[in-house]
C-alpha cells in the first residue's frame, strides 16, 4: 500500500483546520477595518435615504449584529455554500464568483503550465551541456535568469508586454482581441515571475543530483547525458520541484489578481479590486476562502504524490512487505544479489531483524533510486 490511510486522514484534517483559520483570520481583519460597506454604499447623500431607512438596511443585512453572531452566520453560510450577498450590487456572492471564476481558472492554469515549461527549460539548459566555450556562457546566463524574473513586478511586466508586443510590434492585440489572443500576454505576465522560484529550486536540485555517486557510476558505464537526465536525474530532482510548486500557488493567485486588473479581464482579480474599493466584505471573504481552498488542495496533492514518486517515503507496511520479500530468498539467491550489488559499489544489508524500523537506512545502503541506477 503506497499511501497510509492514517496519513491521508491527518492531511485532510490539517487542510480543514487551515481553511477554518484562514476564514477566521480574514473575518477578523475585515471586521477591524473602520467603517463598513453598508454605510459606504447607502449613506451617500445623493441617494436621499433617511437615517431610519439606513437603519432598516443595516438591520436587514446584519451589519449591527454582534461580532460573534456575524461570524457564526458567515461560517454557517460558507459551510452550506451560501456566501451571502454583495453590499454593492445586492447580488448573491456565489453568483458573482461563479461568473468570474472560469476566466481566472483558465488564466491560472495556462500561466501555471507555461511557468512549469519555462522553469524546466531554464533548469535543463542551465545545468546540462558543455563546460567550456559559448555553451558554457549561455549556461551561466540562464543560471542568472531566475533571479531576474523573480525581481520583476507583475504589474510592470504586464504594462511592458502590452507596450512592446501590442503597441510597438503589433503581434498581439489588446483592443477587442479574440479569446485565445486575449490570453497570450496575461499568461506570460503570470508565468514569468512564477517560473523563477521553480527554476531556482530545479537548478539547485539537478546540480546536487549530478554530483551524486550513482550518477557518476551510471556515467562511467557509458550512459548518454540525455539518458541520465531522463532516467536518473529527473526522478531524483523532482521532489524539491514539487515542494516549491505547492508553495508558489499563493503567488499564482496574487499574480492572476494583478494581471486581470492590468488587462481588464473579467475575473476574480477584477471583482476583488472592486470589492476593496467599495468595502464589499462578503466578496472579499469569499475570495480569501476560495484562494485558500485552492492552495490547500494543491499542497495536499503534492504531499500525496511524494510516496508515489519516491519509494523511500512509502508506508511502513510497504517497507515491511519488501523486507519480508527479501527474507524469502534462499541463501544462494542472496549471495548472487549481494555479489551483483558489490560489483557497482553497493553494500546490501538484508536486515533480517523484523523489529528494525521501516524505512531505516543502514550503513552502506544506497537510497532506492541510487541502487536502481547503479544496477541499470
From TrEMBL:
Compartments, as annotated in UniProt: Cell membrane
Transmembrane segments: 12-33, 105-128, 148-171, 183-203, 237-263, 283-309
Residue segments, region Disordered: 345-376
Bias (Low complexity): 354-369
Membrane topology, from the record: Multi-pass membrane protein
Record SUPFAM superfamilies: MetI-like (SSF161098)
Domain ABC transmembrane type-1: start-end pairs: 101-306
Cited CDD domains: TM_PBP2
Keywords, alphabetical: Cell membrane, Membrane, Transmembrane, Transmembrane helix, Transport
UniProt xrefs under InterPro entries: BPD_transp_1_N (IPR045621), MetI-like (IPR000515), MetI-like_sf (IPR035906)
Pfam families membership: BPD_transp_1, BPD_transp_1_N
Family per similarity comment: Belongs to the binding-protein-dependent transport system permease family.
Protein name, as recorded: ABC transporter permease
